[in-house]
Structures are given as C-alpha cells and as structure tokens.
Write a structure and sequence with these properties.
The protein has 475 residues and is of the alpha+beta class. The protein has 13 helices and 22 strands.
C-alpha cells in the first residue's frame, strides 16, 4: 500500500430505527476488487427485508472484517476500502463541518459512516469526533439515497429528524417540498468557496455525487439470482450410526421473523374463517379479451389478481371495519387502504404493500403487482415497500390450490385468498351449465369481525367479481 493510500472504514448502517443488527448475506466485492462510488459491495439481511450496501468512495476493497452469514451490530466495522490519490481530500472537507453545523454535517451520501485513517493522518483524524457528535447523521437508508439521487439533492444540506440526527425519507420529502433543493443544487459550488478551513475542491465533488449515482444505477446488479445457491441458509449433514443422513438448515433472520409473526398471529388472534364460491366466467372472458393488448401496451402480464384486488378494495370501501387492527381497548380503522400482497420466493414469503390501492384502477394495480413481485423475487425490496399494510390478499390459486386456511398477517384483521379457477357443472335456472368457478377464503380476527359482517363483505367481493363484463375498462 502506497504512502498516500487511505483506508476508509465501512460501518454497518442502521437500516431502520428498530433494527440493531444485520447479517452479511453475500459479499459482492472481494479484496483486490476495484470499487466505484455507490456501487453495491455486499448484501445485508435483516428481519424485515434484504438491502444492498453501497460504497461511499472510489477505491479498492482492502479487507473484509465480517464473514458471510455473520450477524453484525449497527456501528461495527465490516470492511475497509483503500482509497488512493486525491480521494483523501473528501475527509478533509468533513473536518470543519462539526464546527459549522454543530457536528451534524454528513460526508458522502451513503448507507455507511466512513471514517478515514492513514498512517500520516491518524493522530489528527476528525472522524471519531464527528461520529460522536452525530452517530446516525451519515447513515442513509437505500430509500433516502434513491430519493436524493432522483431529485439531485445534496444530503449534506438536509436537516435530519431521525434517531441520532439521521436523515429519513420524510426529511428528504420535506426538504424537497420546501423548495430549498433546487437553489442549493445550482449555487452549491460558489457557496462552498468561502469556507476558509475546508479544502476547496471537496464540496463540488459532494454536489456531483447524485449525478454519478444516476449514471451508475442502470448497471447496478444485486448479485443475487435465483439460479445461484445462496450462501444463507447453509446446510450441514449429520450422519447417524445407521449411515442415514440428516440435513440441517440454518434459520435465516427472515425465516425467524416469519416464524415469530406466525406464532404471534395464531397465539394472540382468535382465528375464524369462511369461504364463498364465485362464478368467474365473465372475468375469464374479459381477461382473455384484454391480456394480449395489455401485454403489448404495458409490457407485463394481466393477471386475475389485479381484478380480484380491485373487487376487494371496492368491498373494503363499503365495509371499512375490514381495514382495521385490534388495539386492546379500541379498534383502529385505517383510512388508507394499503393492500399487502403475499409473494412467495424459493425460501420465504414476503408481503410487500400496494399503498392507497383504492386510488388505483385495474391497470395501475396490475403494474404495482408486477413490480412488487419482481422486486421480491430479485431481493430488491426496500423497507418502505414492506410497511403500512392494512389488509392482505394472497393468490394461492397460482399453485393449483382450491381451498386454504390462511393465517392472518399480524396485526391486520383479515386475509383473503383467491383459489384456483376450475370449470364445473353449475345449476343455473334449473339447467346445468359449465362455468369457471373459484373459491375465495377469508380468515378473520374474531375479536374485531363476526360472521355477519364477514359474510356480507365476502358477498360484496363476490358481487364485484361476478360484476365484471366484457365491457369493463382497465383504465
């Protein structure tokens, strides 16, 4: 390592206020690999969602201090990046920031809190004092980074209201709404010049970072593909005396969370369930009529789930109590209808959320379903994608199921499953006809919902689904 090479610590960020640790899922960079700023260097697994950790500087991966599968506490160093040449100028600009902004100024926009230390600079390195003053200020979530890059916002100028001075997504949106984002972006380079104690070249580099991220974003790769054998869970083979083998699979944080929430759901919620049979013949005709044109226009498949979700959302409008949670001494009815969509992967089930689903038409719901399903299976869900759900819909019919008893997505009041469409002989006006039929199953929290209201809700869903005609519009 040359004398002018600086090592930058990569620290485990706090991806959400409730998270105190994360697991290294997979290292995307190995020692000796070149790294570009904002390029993902590893995948992090939490009990809520997977996330990529981007680099804060250009350089070369020097060493990995945490192994794949290791759970690391927030704030611990997990790797070091070697930065050569003029790169050490960036930490110099961070030195006067605590004096000018009370220690709340952040370095590069990233999910890590870099601390720069070289053999020559260690005695006077300002990084420890900076972290002590604002430990969370420089730890940006992927959602914050993405939003800042999209609007060209320099996160150094955004006030943070989160834990430890951390900048949240709401802070970025408030900063954007205030109109302060455009002015600093245009005037940042000349405004940075008067700073007497800072290295002059550093501020313009920070302002340019969002643009660099935009250029890099299209070629970013999650590094995780379903065709690969993931590092987690690991499988161990234990041989008994008789020569038989047992396969031991490590419980991942996501699987542990699923187990915890399912146990909490069945132990705290008095489950009841009911089912109704629906004639979807008209829906099948409608979808077959529109699916090819929709595929050409939108580039995605038009599934039955989008029609069902529209029918469910319309029924929830008529029966708002379905959109509620139990709060011991009261029942909280949610104003927004945010539909959690159960999406299965090879090793887990995730429930990303379609926000304000009642404000979307069938085509809009179809786009949201396709986008969230793709992000789930590619491991690219953000924490924001998983939060705020008020009612869950699951398409168990995609597996050929005709009847199921779903477990409620705690703490919601109900979950609905759409079963497989099967052609059956049905009696209509004392005559037998072959119709496309499907079962819709509803599990309900009996503390909140009773048979009458649940039955009426299911009947309304049935009426909405059977009300589709070949003239129904998608937009």
């Amino acid at each position: 390592m040359s004398d002018n090479t600086t090592l930058t610590d990569v620290i485990m960020p706090q991806l959400a206020e409730s998270l105190v640790s994360a697991t290294i899922g997979k290292w995307l960079k190995q020692p000796g690999d070149p790294i570009e700023q904002y390029e993902p260097i590893c995948e992090l697994i939490t009990d809520k969602v997977n996330a990529e950790l981007p680099a804060t500087v250009d350089g070369t991966m020097a060493e990995l201090l945490a192994e794949e599968g290791q759970t690391v506490s927030v704030g611990e160093i997990i790797a070091r990046i070697a930065v050569a040449g003029a790169a050490p100028a960036a930490p110099a600009a961070a030195a006067p920031s605590p004096e000018a902004a009370g220690g709340s100024s952040a370095p590069a926009a990233s999910g890590t809190a870099p601390q720069t230390h070289s053999a020559a600079a260690r005695p006077s390195a300002p990084a420890p004092a900076y972290d002590a003053a604002a430990p969370m200020r420089s730890r940006y979530s992927p959602a914050v980074q993405s939003l800042a890059a999209e609007h060209g916002i320099n996160l150094v100028a955004v006030p943070g209201t989160g834990l430890g001075g951390r900048i949240t997504r709401k802070d970025v949106l408030a900063f954007l709404a205030s109109g302060a984002a455009a002015q600093p972006a245009a005037s940042a380079p000349p405004a940075a010049a008067p700073a007497p104690a800072a290295a002059p070249p550093a501020p313009p580099v920070q302002v340019a970072q969002p643009d660099m991220r935009d250029e890099l974003q299209p070629v970013r790769n999650s590094g995780l593909h379903l065709s690969e054998s993931p590092k987690i869970p690991t499988i161990e083979v234990e041989r008994g005396r008789d020569g038989m083998s047992e396969y031991l699979i490590d419980v991942t944080p996501i699987r542990n969370t699923i187990a915890t929430r399912m146990r909490q759901s069945v132990s705290e919620i008095p489950h009841a369930w009911t089912m109704i049979e629906v004639d979807v013949t008209n829906l099948v005709v409608l979808r077959n009529k529109l699916k090819d044109e929709f595929k050409r226009k939108e580039g995605i498949n038009l599934t039955y789930l989008a029609f069902l979700m529209k029918a469910v959302v319309s029924a929830i409008k008529d029966y708002p109590i379905m959109n509620s949670v139990w709060a011991v001494d009261k029942i909280i009815v949610k104003r927004d209808i945010n539909i959690s969509l159960a999406v299965g992967t090879e090793d887990s089930v995730m429930t990303p959320v379609i926000k304000k689903a009642d404000q979307k038409n069938i085509a809009g719901l179809a786009r949201e379903i396709d986008e969230l399903a793709l992000k789930t299976r590619e491991g690219k869900l953000r924490l924001d994608d998983m939060q705020g759900g008020t009612f869950t819909v699951n398409n168990t019919g995609s597996f050929g199921s005709i009847l199921s008893y779903p477990i409620i997505n705690y703490p919601q009041a109900a979950i609905l499953t759409f079963e497989s469409i099967v052609k059956k002989p049905v009696v209509i006006n004392d005559m037998i006809a072959v119709r496309s039929m499907a079962n819709i199953c509803l599990s309900l929290d009996h503390r909140i919902l009773d048979g009458v209201i649940s039955g009426r809700f299911l009947q309304r869903v049935k009426d909405n689904v059977e009300g589709y005609t070949p003239e129904t519009k998608l937009y």
